[in-house]
Amino acid sequence: MNCIVGLERHCLDLVVAAPIHTYILGAASQETTRFFPSADGCELADNITYLGRRGVFSGASGLQIAYVSGREGRLDPTPAHCFSPEDLHQLVEPLINNNQFRGVDILLTSQWPRGVWQYANSPEVNTKLCGAGSISQLAYKLKPRYHFAAVEGVHYERRPYRNHVVLQENTQHVSRFIALATVNNPEKRKYLYAFNIIPMKSMESSELVKQPQDVTENPYRKMVGENTLSDPTVQEPASQFFFDLGKKQRGGGRGQGGRGRKRPSDGDGQNQGQPWDPDRQSQRPPFDLDGPKQPRRPPQPSGPCWFCLASPQVEKHLVISIGTHCYLALAKGSLTPQHVLVLPIGHYQSVVELSSEVVKELDRYKMAVRTFYKSKGQRCVLFERNYHSQHLQIQAVPVPEDKCTTEDIKEAFMLQAQDQNMQLMEIPEYTDLEQIAPPGTPYFYVELDSGEKLFYRIQRNFPLQFGREVLASESVLNIPERADWRGCKQTPEEEESLSKQLRDDFQPYDFALED
């Protein structure tokens, strides 16, 4: 079936007729309500039909189009140019209560879904103000193959996202979000979208669920679970400190002699994250099918922790860089002189337990380390072992490019896993680890410089030095004698000298010096 979608966000001028059947959404502002005489939809002119405030349009071919006109209503009664929570419930319930429901072919909304850009390319809009949380939940429930919106007046085509959890649910079709610009805009941004679509009900399941190479994680899954784009109530422990890493590190000078300056807790003032709806911070989103969830706090260590930055057990001379939520340190008994750890400042056991703010900075450190290694002609291998460990450690190990290829490194992990009766699985590039390994799941995880990711759900008797053993093997770094960190210990003076050198080398890539 051929479709042309064009969503105009400004008022209708005098229209006599259209050359083809044209269906439009309704008013998105009070000023334009006068052009739409009925909330139930009507014919405005020859071949031009206003669909109504909300509903489902089914074509003769079986194509199913769900639609919601206007903006999210926050007043009671709901203004004519807005939709209410009841509108959304009445749209969703009959569809999802059908046992045969797999999703809709097309979803049309005036507003963008909030957070649609998560895991994907960024749009040219102010993401702090753009979109409605209720539209995000609507898209999550209806699983549209195509979702179109327009009121922001810019063109944005997001990478497709999946509607299932990898390795836990049966494969489902992907969704695509496309925002269209204003008609005849001076920047000549795209305001029409033409495409062919076969109705979902007419497609073979194997064809429907094919996954494109650039598919990402679902941007709404975590939001629907937590009711926020990021949980603003999650805070790091208040007892965090800066340490003297040189004159430029966080304003600390060498004259401080290494004495700590207490870091304000993340709950103070401007460092908190943004709630779901900036205008209604203490309220849940108006369209909430799952109910509110309690905010998560990072667990506290049951005993002394060698990696909590505020802990007296931390060997602070190994610290390379300190950010707001994470820090970088030389690995104890390092495989190579530039083998480092990326760690959260607060006490978290694994990546899947981190709040979104911590994940964001963790990713910045990973990218900085990759860039640092690349400048020296090295590949970056990252791995995490969430097993017999109480504090998250991302190991970052450089491998010289002339030693082996990325494919060689991947094969080394696969073969060594097979030798020990373990099955490492390759997972899609844009997969969210939290969807594969819920908190509390023991696992081993590898990221290669190609973007490829390997995952193993640990059963029992996992070799604690597995990651080091693979990288130290003859096929990679060829330093098998350094596979166990305990055999690579150095004196505190040697460690401090190595840390200082690495701190100086990393300084051009250290974003923490600029923030």
TrEMBL record:
Chain spans, region Disordered: 242-301
SUPFAM superfamilies xrefs: HIT-like
Cwf19-like protein C-terminal domain residues: 420-511
Residues covered by the Cwf19-like C-terminal domain: 298-404
Gene3D superfamilies referenced in this protein's UniProt entry, alphabetically: HIT-like
Entries under Pfam families matching the protein: CwfJ_C_1, CwfJ_C_2
Superkingdom of this protein's organism: Eukaryota
Family assignment from sequence similarity: Belongs to the CWF19 family.
Name of the protein: CWF19-like protein 1
Organism per entry: Salmo salar
Gene name for this UniProt entry: LOC123738369
